[in-house]
Amino acid sequence: MTTITNRVRLTKPSFFKASPLLIAKMTCNKLKSYSMGKEASEVSRKITGKTTVNEAYEITSKYIAWQNHYEK
To answer: At the top level of its lineage, which domain of life is listed (predicted)?
Structure first.
């Protein structure tokens, strides 16, 4: 049996400010605000300082639907 996860929408940080730890912090804060603490702790365990920005987006895309600033 598969489980379906509703993904939360979140705006990507600008290209110049994007870092794996910022992406992890934004994701954890958003998930915690929706009472998804278990998922937030999973994200924070997987993303470290050695994680690339693209890997961070891949890890968090399971729970977050990332959108650019200009998308509505």
So the answer is: Bacteria
67 forms beta bridges with 11
Whether 4 and 59 have beta carbons less than 8 Å apart is answered as: no
Whether the pTM exceeds 0.85: the reply is no
Q: b/e map of 11-44 (b: 16 or more CB within 10 Å)?
A: ebeeeeeeebeebbebbbebbeeeebeebbebbe
C-alpha 19/C-alpha 40 separation (Å) is: 17
